[in-house]
């Protein structure tokens, strides 16, 4: 081998040795790095100083929202593992009103809500679709519906409702409230639902109503000398006619709001009342006969203080009531018989109301005679007309006045269109002595003792709570 060839070989070997040494030095200075990105694992040795340089060396682009672990500024060390987590963009719709895009490194619905600053909704009764905890992918859509508390007033009731509906119609459906075609809703059913809203439902009903209207009858008057002047006689009773009016009535929650006349029909014509009017002259009066004994007896009873009624010579129920009371107080046989022989003479001999057998103050109710006796200081002071119960009440016995109620009022047991009890004095449960506008000479009440309003004034002023009430006799 020539000397020149030998020098060439030695020179080449020297270069190779230098390169090998340099390579050894570089290998010793580099670091082994593993990069996990997009489902791949890349392994390389690098002289890069930090994580950002490694990713740049490998042409791995990182978006702002992507997450790099460890951070890009982290120095490179041997056997370093770099994880690049890609951010996903998800549409988030909140309660149908707020739509936003959320770009972040997320795996589940929960992650998206936390990334959007809405993590607190996971602790509320929000309805989330897909459900919390579900895994998501880029481009997914998440719907969050918040419950709305509303107040519904319908059919006379108040409903408190928490609903996910977004309109008034949806809330009513959730509450199980069905609307009629004419019903009124405020706010309207298409309105969006707001928290704390009050929904009012007014039921509208249209009905037909037939009203009977009276057509007043007239009167025809015909003169006749068959009757005396001032006398009249009805030959034909008048009869009112009848008209039917048909209305269309609009009711809102049962209250009438509008009325429209649809039809009108006369179903019965009126009939006039026909009256004969007398024009005849009064004949000359005959001499008036002497007063009968009944008239004298009536006058004597009235003078003594017994409630005889009119002094008219008629021995009727009122006269017999006074006779019955007189017989009672005078110790005679008690009855409601008409005037008996010898009683006129006895009445002439009677000098006022007799003394009572009981001292002090009190009243006696006489069921037989239908009168009430007032006793003051041991003497019968007054005899009043009375009317007791048709069912035999009050029963015979001894009672006391338990309480008094002044003025006019209506019975709670037997209500009347207008007040029917005056200056009531209760002596046995709901049974009372009270004033009334109707005090016939027979039982007519529901159990109380009726007297005239004038008598009620006198009794109410005289009697006190605790005074005795004695009930005697039977009708």
Written overview of the protein:
With 475 residues, this protein is an alpha+beta fold. The protein folds into four domains: 88-145, Ubiquitin-like (UB roll) (Roll), CATH 3.10.20; 148-202, Ubiquitin-like (UB roll), CATH 3.10.20; 207-280, Resuscitation-promoting factor rpfb (Resuscitation-promoting factor rpfb fold, Single Sheet), CATH 2.20.230; 293-472, L,D-transpeptidase catalytic domain-like. Helices cover 19% and strands 37% of the residues. It has eight helices and 27 strands. It has helices at residues 3-29, 51-57, 109-115, 168-174, 293-304, 317-329, 343-348, 453-462; strands at 31-37, 40-46, 67-69, 80-85, 88-94, 98-104, 127-129, 141-145, 148-154, 157-163, 184-186, 198-202, 204-215, 219-228, 232-236, 241-252, 255-268, 273-280, 362-366, 371-376, 379-385, 397-400, 403-409, 421-428, 431-435, 449-451, 468-472. The strands form seven sheets. A five-stranded mixed sheet has the order 21-20-19-27-22. It has a four-stranded mixed sheet with strand order 2-1-4-3. Strand 9 and strand 10 form a beta hairpin. The chain is elongated, with a radius of gyration of 56 Å.
